[in-house]
C-alpha cells in the first residue's frame, strides 16, 4: 500500500522496549526505519468467521482514506 519512510516511520524518542512483552520486544528490537527506508508496507485486515462483509467494508474505508494513490506498487508512475 505504501513504502517505509525513514523520517515518518522512525520510532518516537519516548519509545521504551522494556514496557513491551517478550514477543513484542523481539520484533521491535530489529526495527530500524533508516535501514527499512523504501521497503513496501502492506495492510492485512482480518475478521471473525462469517464476517466477510465487515472486512470488505473496512478495506473500502482504508482504500478511500488512501485516495487515488492506494496502490503505488501495483501501478507505478515512475518507470525509469
What does this entry show, briefly?
The protein is mainly alpha-helical. The chain has helices spanning about 20-30, 35, 50-65, and strands spanning about 1-5, 40.
Characterize the structure shown.
It is a single chain. The chain is mostly helical and 80 residues long. It folds into 2 domains: 1-40, no CATH class; 43-80, no CATH class. 32% of the residues lie in helices and 5% in strands. It has 3 helices and 2 strands. The protein has helices at residues 22-28, 33-36, 52-66, and strands spanning 2-3, 40-41. Strands 1-2 form a two-stranded antiparallel sheet. The radius of gyration is 16 Å and the shape is flat. It starts with a strand and ends in a 14-residue tail after the last helix.
Ordered list of secondary-structure elements with their pairings:
Blueprint: E1 2-3, H1 22-28, H2 33-36, E2 40-41, H3 52-66
Antiparallel strand pairs: 1-2
Discrete helix count: 3
- Average of pLDDT: 84
What helical percentage do the residues reach?
Answer: 25-40%
The low-confidence parts are none
Order of strands, main sheet, comes to: 1-2
Number of strands: 2
Instruction: Return the string of H and E elements.
Output: EHHEH
End-to-end CA span: 20 Å
Labels describing this entry:
single chain, mainly alpha, 2 domains, two-stranded antiparallel sheet, 32% helix, 80 residues
Amino acid at each position: 500500500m505504501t513504502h517505509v519512510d525513514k523520517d515518518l516511520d522512525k520510532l518516537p524518542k519516548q519509545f521504551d522496549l522494556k514496557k513491551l512483552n517478550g514477543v513484542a520486544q523481539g520484533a521491535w528490537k530489529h526495527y530500524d526505519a533508516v535501514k527499512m527506508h523504501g521497503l513496501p508496507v502492506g495492510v492485512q485486515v482480518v475478521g471473525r468467521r462469517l464476517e466477510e462483509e465487515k472486512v470488505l467494508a473496512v478495506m473500502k474505508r482504508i482504500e478511500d482514506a488512501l485516495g487515488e494513490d492506494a496502490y503505488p506498487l501495483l501501478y507505478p508512475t515512475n518507470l525509469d
